[in-house]
Amino acid sequence: MPSFNQSIFHPAVFFLTGIPGFETYHAWISIPFCCLYAVAITGNGMILFVIITESSLHEPMYYFLSMLSCTDLGLCLSTVVTILGIFWFNAREISFDACVGQMFFIHGFTFMESSVLLAMAFDRFIAICNPLRYATILTNSRIIKVGFAVVIRGTTALVPLLLLLKRLSFCRSHVLHHSYCFHPDVMKLSCTDTKINSAFGLSIVISNAGVDSVLILLSYVLIIHSVLSIASPEERKKAFGTCVSHISAVAIFYIPMISLSLVHRFGKHTPPLVHTLIANVYLLIPPVMNPIIYSVKTKQIRKAVLKIFLSKLI
């Protein structure tokens, strides 16, 4: 561990945390984590493969779904090395620069996923409220522009945020509460004033995930208003049915993220185990559940996946 004189500037390393109180069982705990990572990477990879190879899925809704799978894969690949390294080899050390790099990818893919979910909500809004103009509004060129906007929006604000983090001095414990680097967690270890960092970080969260969640809610208010005006109960059910997968994806993304943010802001006396569990749920549940939800609830995806499996068997 770096000496105190070194640590008042930038620590040579931070120390990540596995599952507090269960260190002797890390080898066994790694088994469900391996399974979750395998499901997330395989499932999202399969979604991407079927969308690319099946021409019937070359539609706006599925292009946005492929973006969602890309962000989920990015989140998994950003943390799989550090988390499994802790469980298998007790490799808890991570350099300051590597920690900053990991934060960039974790927060970047998180904000990108929020933007993709907003784009998917807009897709459902157009499909239900203005179906005759759906093909003319969501053209391939506009979807490509949306993809670029998602990447730029998700990463641009992170650069000054992480540069502000690098100016901080660290003179407290270098032990983080999670198995990966998370901005609020690292910021708490600083012994200098972090008001600017905290305010800027909060503004980024509000301008990204906060605005996105409000616009998603607004889109569904308009969708519900439009669907209730449909006379046929069967048509209403069909219209709502097309939104079930997206509503589920929104819920499993925002609920863990809000929970983790609340724990970091107001849970100073919360046991470390709670921090760790919520952090892992926030990181792993959306990438694991999204491909399952869309494979089960979306008939076209389900048929395409079954077609690939059956062709391999034959």
UniProtKB/TrEMBL annotation:
Entry keywords, A to Z: Cell membrane, G-protein coupled receptor, Membrane, Olfaction, Receptor, Sensory transduction, Transducer, Transmembrane, Transmembrane helix
Homology family: Belongs to the G-protein coupled receptor 1 family.
GO biological process: cellular response to lipid
Pfam families reported for this sequence: 7tm_4
Protein name (database record): Olfactory receptor
Leader sequence residues: none
Transmembrane segments: 25-51, 63-89, 101-122, 143-165, 213-231, 243-267, 273-293
Membrane-topology annotation of the record: Multi-pass membrane protein
Subcellular location, record wording: Cell membrane; Membrane
GO molecular function, one term: G protein-coupled receptor activity
Superkingdom in the source lineage: Eukaryota
Main location: membrane
Domain G-protein coupled receptors family 1 profile, first and last residues per copy: 43-294
InterPro entries: GPCR_Rhodpsn (IPR000276), GPCR_Rhodpsn_7TM (IPR017452), Olfact_rcpt (IPR000725), OR51/52/56-like (IPR050402)
Parts forming coiled coils: none
One of the record's GO cellular component terms: plasma membrane
Entry function: Putative odorant or sperm cell receptor.
